[in-house]
Design a protein that fits this description.
The protein has 201 residues and is of the alpha/beta class. It contains five helices and five strands. Strand 1 and strand 2 form a beta hairpin.
Length: 201
Amino acid sequence: MHSFTVPVPARRLAAVALILVVAVIVALRHVGSGASSAPPLQVAPVHVSATPARASPVAAALLVVDVEGAVRRPGLVQLPKGARVADAVARAGGLTAKAQRAGVDLAALVSDGQQVLVPGAGVVGASSASSPGGSVPTAPISLNAATAEQLDTLPGIGPVTAQKIVTFRAQHGPFESVDGLDAIPGIGPARIAELQGLVTP
């Protein structure tokens, strides 16, 4: 009986193939173990901060005016810049039945801190004509609300100068202070000093 002998080259090929298979198995195990030992991928949290809404533009500053006299609801009222005496009177409830409509300049501009005095029937005061003998008004007159006739009651202020005050007020806006009368032709520091306490802005 003859024995079957595998040629040497075939054995070498089988050995080489076996080595390659083992190498592949070892490599796969190494890759698998390396992947399992790798730390898990951590994703940094994303913080979304809500942007606060911008505040709306500040509303325009309001003027505070004291409305007194023959109005339905006397007291402090708030008005926007550029408001007139008529707006202040309307905010105070309007004129009463006893109000002297001609005694207040409803078209005059108002200023912050001003007092608007609406005269009533039979009331003698800042808005009425001066009494006989040339006496001065008993209450301050508002430069920004008085009519030319009311300004004419002031000492040293005649009808011409009174009209100049009203015209200047209409063209340049309300007076900020009594010293603003210096811009009126014919009124100087001495006259302004004399009017202190008799007029208000």
